[in-house]
Amino acid sequence: MPDIATGQxxxxxxxxxxxxxxxxxxxxxxxxxxxHVGSASARIVAELAARHPGSAVPADPAALAxxxxxxxxxxxxxxxxxxxxxxxxxEDIRLLTFEVARDMARQNIRYxxxxxTPFSSVLRGIPDRxxxxxxxxxxxxxxxxxxxxxxxCFDIPGELGLEGAExxxxxxxxxxxxxxxxxxxxxxxxGFPRPQxxxxxxxxxxxxxxxxxxxGETTGPQxxxxxxxxxxxxxxxxxxTAADDPRLLEHLAERRIxxxxxxxxxxxxxxxxxLEEHPIGRMVAAGVLVTVNSDDxxxxxxxLNTEYAVAARLLELDPAGVAELAKNAVEASFLDPAGKxxxxxxxxxxTAAWGG
Length: 356
Ligand SMILES: [Zn+2]
Prior knowledge:
Elements: H1 19-26, E1 29-35, H2 42-51, H3 61-67, H4 73-84, H5 90-106, E2 109-116, H6 118-123, H7 128-146, E3 149-157, H8 161-175, E4 180-186, H9 198-206, E5 210-211, E6 214-215, H10 221-231, E7 235-238, H11 246-255, E8 258-261, H12 263-268, H13 280-285, E9 290-292, H14 304-315, H15 319-332, H16 337-355
Parallel strand pairs: 1-2, 2-3, 3-4, 4-5, 6-7, 7-8, 8-9
Helix pairs in contact: 1-14, 5-7, 8-9, 15-16
Residues 33, 35, 186, 214, 237, 295 line the site of zinc ion.
């Protein structure tokens, strides 16, 4: 992964005294759980809405803020899918992807595994090869122009059942774009048990893709066990309710299976009642490899830096502790060893300069 080590400027500002927020802002970071369409900022969404009149999504950024206020998880899925409907052609995809990377660069995110749901776009009429070309074109531009390394997780939209699973597997394995590293499963958990997706994960894993399903966000710890045992999960998307099962936490800790924790998302969707009640502290105390992520940041009024600030507060971390959290994401990423060393090195250099 040479682009992580090309020495692209990160825009970091060194020197202590700026507080934890300033430390976080300049810290080189990796993000492992962030959705492609769900990363569309209000500006991008408004632009898309204006280009495609007649959509349910308002084109006015102020009205978008109201539109993105969710009543519950089901309402969130409904709003999310209405934004998906705005993505009409390959140029929409290329623009969205590159602009998402630009927002990442502003936060000093140096590497991201972006969860992409190609079937949703193909279903809406974007030819599959044009879709792949668009994301790959944006990935190369993001590396060259922004110093952001993107990789893809293709995820099954669980609400579309086995047809979505079959098609996502075909798109992943048939067209396997260069940046594709992993295979996921999103959408609602209630009514869509994980084990039915096992044959598709088996095929994806046999083709060399890593397994990273969502589990335990809106259902209990048994869903996380199913993700591990049936889908061969190497990381868990959310895994929030894993904290209710001490044996599961022990299992995750022993095997260094990371949880992709997204605190603000959990509150916005109602998965957790309040940040004070968020189980991230219990996860860390149990020795689990915890990573911090933003999920669908503009939709939840957040970004990765804000999520790090939330985690720093909940876990009472100083800059060195925050740096360790950032290195957890590097460890749990699917970067190759040289890429991991390079990014961990950037974090260490930045942190040492801050402390000094
Ligand atoms: Zn997610």
